[in-house]
Amino acid sequence: MTVHILDDKNSLLNKFISEIRDVNVQKDSMRFRRNIERIGEILAYEISQSLDYQNKVITTSLGTKIVPVPKNDIVLCSILRAGLPLHTGLLNYFDDAENAFISAYRKHINETEFEIKVEYFASPSLEGKTLILADPMLATGQSIVSVYEGLKNHGTPKKIILACVIGSTEAIELIKKHFPSTTELWIATVDTKLNDKGYIVPGLGDAGDLAFGEKL
Predict the structure, then answer these.
(1) Residue 189 to residue 24: CA distance in whole angstroms
(2) Is the peptide bond before 68 cis (omega within 30 degrees of 0)?
(3) What domains can be seen in the chain, in order of their start residue?
(4) CA-CA distance, 5 to 163, in Å (whole number)?
């Protein structure tokens, strides 16, 4: 697996990351969603550099110009509900992509143990296409692995790209074992620790709750 960590170099991305982490800025849920969306746009731009291109002749009012344009058939898949703002950001740039949505949540066995439940799939065929699987928080990695196992029934993608905002080193090591070696991970930033409940430290908290309100 090829791992691209975007905050390894300074850019405006760091401002958006700082704001989604900041407990004071987090109180504004609309700004939190917008910052996740903007991070998704930056991820989309960076990912676009790894796609396949073909030349297209464009006719202007004064002549013609050959322009290289992406030729990948993209399916953009997000994990509900936290993935929705990230999905929007990616879709703003990959605006002709097909879309898939999947639910995955932690069903707690006790205070520190949980299993991942995947209950809803809405996906087109993935056969021969470029799958961009978006999940803002790559904590333990179990959710994205469970989703990938479920997606296998929808066909074999030609290329798999994972798009994430914050992840843990532990999760990255886990997904390397479950995804094809040709998979690309594009992630805004990585933290080294998980707490005993499986949340990223320092992380930012529960992205779904911060974006859409607390759940029962």
Answers:
(1) 20
(2) no
(3) 2-212 (3.40.50.2020)
(4) 11
State pLDDT tens for residues 177-198. Answer: 999 999 999 999 999 999 988 8
Q: How far is CA 34 from CA 22, 86, 177, 186, 190, in A?
A: 14, 9, 33, 19, 20
Three-point CA angle 216, 103, 157, nearest 5° = 165
Q: Which two tokens stand for residue 10?
A: 């300074």
Q: Which two tokens stand for residue 33?
A: 């969603």
> Comparing C-alpha atoms, which of 20, 134, 24 is closest to residue 82?
134
Residues 208/215, Cβ–Cβ less than 8 Å: yes
End-to-end distance of the chain based on CA atoms, in angstroms? 37
Q: What is the pLDDT of residues 83-129, one digit of tens each?
A: 999 999 999 999 999 999 988 766 656 766 666 677 778 899 999 99
